[in-house]
Each structure stands twice: as structure tokens, then as C-alpha cells.
Amino acid sequence: MQVIADLRALWPLREFRKLFAVRLVSQSADGMFQVGLATLFFFSPENASTAGGVAAAFAVLLLPFTVVGPWAGVLLDRWRRRQVLLVGNLVRVGLTLTIALLMVTDGVGPAVYVLALVALSVNRFLLSALSASLPRVVDGPLLLTANSLTPTLGTAAAGVGGGIGFVLGWVLPAGRVRDAAALVVAAAVMATASALAARIAPDRLGPSDRSDAAQLRAALGTLARGLVEGARYLVARGTPARALGVMAYTRFLYGVVFIASVLIARNLLADPADSRAGLAAFAAVLGATAVGFAAAVVLTPTLSPRTGVHGWIAGCLGLAAVSQGVIAVTYERVPLLIAAAVLGLGAQGTKIAVDTIVQRDTADAYRGRAFALYDVLYNAAFVGAAALAAAVLPDTGWSRPLFAVLTVGYVLGALGYGFAARRAPEAVPVG
């Protein structure tokens, strides 16, 4: 298979392996941390079981990420990205241990929520740094394979970490110690990620040109202008702006589906009064989605050279449309899990292609801002989806007319993006 040949060519790249290790370990810690939050916000008996409640919780979690994004872009274009990975993970260690201590001593209160939001915001900053760093250790045709491998296996690592957190929640007796256990383990893994980042040379991940302290302060003071300049650059390049546009569009549609899945798992696939059964049902949905993610890592580098990266995006949107057509017909467990796997393939295949386009066609001096804008659009689209879901979803999560509309939305996205890609000239890749 082509993917095996590409992986054999990719693996000897020593600096890539180092960066890849940081991603896998860091995202496994993310999974442990986020499972604890999911249990707290969505699958504890006293918390959200309605469409409005779930949507509000997601909005609260994601709005700080949207605020962090622009600042991250300015800093990632000026700070050494290796130092961001090293220090950022240490900051997360401190935040996570503080949350664990508060949960053991005082229980869940406002301070826990605030610190959790800060920790998740730091996480998005780190993911932006990882994405902006990848072209510094991989270039040429192998960049597509690297983009297939790293985000998808990073997501898989987060799934493994989440599974560990889930198991800890089942085997430990109920109480504050159980609530804190996954966080303590996650903090240890975050510390390991920081140690792995220390193996990378300080200047290896860029950026090529860095500012001194005075220039950095000036850049932070002119944040809005810098983002506008970055956006204008991406629009002038053409392909990165279109890729970000289709990413935001599909993220909006996926956000509605995701919130519906939480509600379906809790209120239709399980007894609404049994939060643990609802969590298990939702874990099954996430597992099926992960199968789709894994398929994307194999199929994207194998098929996209034949279809073209833009044709692959259009095809992935078509697959997503099929998945929503299935759910519009039935919410029974087996068809729902199959639809989740197909949607996972379509969503991750699109993301891999979008990441590749943005990295390949954006100059290094603008990559940090490009991925900061990526994060802003990514999370703002999900917040918008949460607002829509709160307004239109029933508390059961399933609505045949809504899933029919989502089906049409994915079809229109595939046709619109394919038409725009054919009419527009292809950007010349940059180094």
C-alpha cells in the first residue's frame, strides 16, 4: 500500500519522530483530562440532560479557545515553538494538579470550572504550535502523509487517554478521590510531554524570524491589524482561505451532530436516569467515530493523490452527507454507529486535507497566524452550532427534519467547494 511506503520514508526523519512523540503523549493527557470534564458536565446525574444545557456547557468550554486563538498566532510567529511546547505543558501540569487538589479538598466549585477553562485554552495553544511546527520537520510530498498521521494518531492517543480515565472512573469507588485520580495521572503524562519537547533543539521548530521584547509588545498591541494582515495574505493566496472556509462550514455541521449524539446517547440509547449507561453509549459512538478517523489516515494519502486534495475534500463531504441520511431514517444503535464511523472518515479526511493545504500554501512567517485563525473559526463554528442545537434540537437529540437538513447541507458543501476549486487557480506551494 502507498501509505506503508510513505510511512517508511517518513519514519527515518528524526526530528519528525521527536515532534510526533510530543503530540502523542500530550494528547493522551488531553484525553484523560477531557473525559473527567465530560463526566462532570454531561453524564453526572445532576448536570445537563437537555439540548439547552448541553449546548450551554459546550459554549462555555469553547468560547475561551476562540479568545486564545488570535493571541496564539502572534506569539507562535515570534516565540520559539519548541519552548511553547515545553513550557506550555508544564503550565498545564500546575493547573491540573491544582484542580485535583481543589476537587479533593473543596469539591467542584467555580474555581474548578475557571481553571479547567484555562487549561483547555492552553491545550489549544499547544495544538496550534504542533501544527505550525510540522512543516519545519517534514516537507515535500511527505507533508500530506505527516498530516494524515499526526492529527489522526494524536486523536487516537487522546482516545486511549480518555479510555484510561474512563476505566479509572469505573474501578475506583465513587467520591472525590476518584474525581481527582485521572487528573493526577494526566498531570504526570503532561510532564512527560514537556520532557520530550526538551529533546528538540530550541530553534528547530522556528519561526525563522523572531522579534525582541519591544517588538513583541508592539505586535501584541497591534493584534487586530496583524490578524487582518494574516487574513488578507490567506485570501490573496486563495487556497488556504477556501480551505479554512470549508473547515468552518463542516465544523458547524459536525457540531450540531456531536451535540445531538450526546443527547441521543443519554436519552435514547440509555435510560435517562442512568448516567453511567449514557456515558457508555456515548463512548461507543466515539469509538465508532475513531474507527472512521483511523480509516482516514489510511485512505487519505492513498486516494487523495488520485482525486486531488480538493476532490478528496468534496468526496469526504459526500460521505458525511450519507452518514446524516442514515440518521435521518433511524436512531437505532447499529445504524447510528455505522453512521458515526462514516462521518468520522469524512470529517477527519477533510481535516487532513485542509491542514495540508494551509501548511503547504502558507509562508512560514504567516503559519502561526493561519493556525490561530484556524482555531478561531474552528471553535466559533462549534459555538454557533451549539446555539443552533439549543434552538432546534429536542431533548432526545433526534429530529428527522433536522438530520435531513444536515444531509442537504453536506451535499451543498461538497458541490460548492468542488465548483470553487475548479474555477480558482492553484496556489504555488511555499517552503
From TrEMBL:
It is a multi-pass membrane protein. Keywords: Cell membrane, Membrane, Transmembrane, Transmembrane helix. SUPFAM superfamilies: MFS general substrate transporter. InterPro entries: MFS_dom, MFS_trans_sf. It is found in: Cell membrane. PROSITE patterns: MFS. GO terms for cellular component: plasma membrane. Residues 243-431 form the Major facilitator superfamily (MFS) profile domain. The chain crosses the membrane at residues 20-43, 49-72, 142-168, 180-201, 246-265, 277-299, 311-331, 370-392, 398-420. GO terms for molecular function: transmembrane transporter activity. This is Major facilitator superfamily MFS_1.
